[in-house]
Amino acid sequence: MSFEAGGGREKKFVEFCKGVNGLDKVILREVRGHSAEVYLNGGQVTSWKNEYGEELLFLSSKAVFKPPTAIRGGIPISFPQFGMHGSLEQHGFARNTVWTIDKDPPPFPTVSSNKAFIDLMLKPSEDDPKSWPHRFEFRIRIALGPGGDLMLTSRIRNTNTDGKPFTFTFAYNNYFYLTDISEVRIEGLETLDYLDNLKDRDRVTEQGDAITFESEVDKVYLKTPTKIAILDHERKRTYVLRKDGLPDAVVWNPWDKRAKAIVDLGDEEYKHMLMVGAACVEKPITLKPGEEWKGRQELSAVPSSYCSGQLDSHKALRLG
């Protein structure tokens, strides 16, 4: 089944189909050949390909496609809790829940040329933890731009009728596909403070000109810029993450020992992935009844030079 997304004049197709184990899946396609796949399980993007059909997101070969298990890879969403920063299960329940298609979304101030998109919604269910007994509406628009950029816009509203506010943390956990983790660096997080999850969340200041990888990393960078670059030197490709409403950035790679202990990750797959997430962790968000929070990210992949790592300014799209 397919239709013209957004009722546009040009055909930019959204296809509804079945994925692994018969789970509901949505495929977004742009006319130039870019594509993205979204599972209703977790409201999760699991694939993002460029016009050459090259995969840009990492998905574990051992990923489990069986609710309520979270899918390892792609872009899982942490809500209402990131990591173990709270009393709920790790990363909250949004990534373990089957979302519904939102057929009547509120207006989104997105660029009008983005016709390939899907709107999903998550509301409370009886399966949600009793330790987070709140009413909410979580809406997300996942859009694929004409230039291949992937945009996720989340809106979370407090719909409590008892007058109570609620507080949450949040993250888009982007698993980028890489050629070799030892040949990768991140630019944009230099000299910033971070919480080290490997050392009881100690607050540390980052040293050095750029961030490279030679061992396990699990950090939450604080007060980060709106643009972060992940340079894959081997493939001469740079991923650009732009974000709005998400002041923190999560960086994670399990390295060899930890990878062997993760049942839904291949022993050697840590070499080909890096999770860099747009997040709000240090200062949780509090919403009163009727209030809404919005957090947005845009991902693009552009050519980069091994020597300079300079972005191609013509292809690095601005966050609208």
TrEMBL record:
Q: Biological process (GO) annotations?
A: carbohydrate metabolic process
* Membrane-spanning intervals of the chain: none
Q: What is its EC number?
A: 5.1.3.15
Instruction: State any single GO MF term.
Output: carbohydrate binding
Which reaction(s) does its UniProt entry say it catalyses?
Answer: alpha-D-glucose 6-phosphate = beta-D-glucose 6-phosphate
Superkingdom per UniProt: Eukaryota
Gene3D superfamilies registered for this protein in UniProt: 2.70.98.10
Which residues are noted in the entry as substrate-binding?
R72, Q90, R95
GO-annotated cellular components: cytoplasm
Q: Is the keyword Repeat assigned to this protein?
A: no
- Which UniProt keywords are present, listed alphabetically? Isomerase
- Tell me if Isomerase is a UniProt keyword of this record: yes
Q: Can you tell me which family this protein belongs to?
A: Belongs to the glucose-6-phosphate 1-epimerase family.
Which PANTHER family does the UniProt record give? APOSPORY-ASSOCIATED PROTEIN C-RELATED, GLUCOSE-6-PHOSPHATE 1-EPIMERASE
Protein name per Swiss-Prot or TrEMBL:
glucose-6-phosphate 1-epimerase
- Organismal lineage: Eukaryota, Viridiplantae, Streptophyta, Embryophyta, Tracheophyta
